[in-house]
Amino acid sequence: MRLKELRKQRGISQLKLALDLNMNQNSISRYETGSHEADYATLIKLADYFDVSLDYLLERTDCPTRN
To answer: Cys-Cys link to 14, which of 28, 33, 34, 48 (CB 3.0-4.6 A)?
Structure first.
């Protein structure tokens, strides 16, 4: 998942992202390291937050825009 890459590109800390999405910072860290997988609802939140497609977030495409 491109979560860490997107977060760093925008200069957002794990804590800020977690607070913005009403989540736990530990969850963000686990998603970034791959030790946990986000559920579908969380993936949608993350894609909406960064304004990218789910396919881009999940590294299924290199095109970040939604079609």
So the answer is: 28
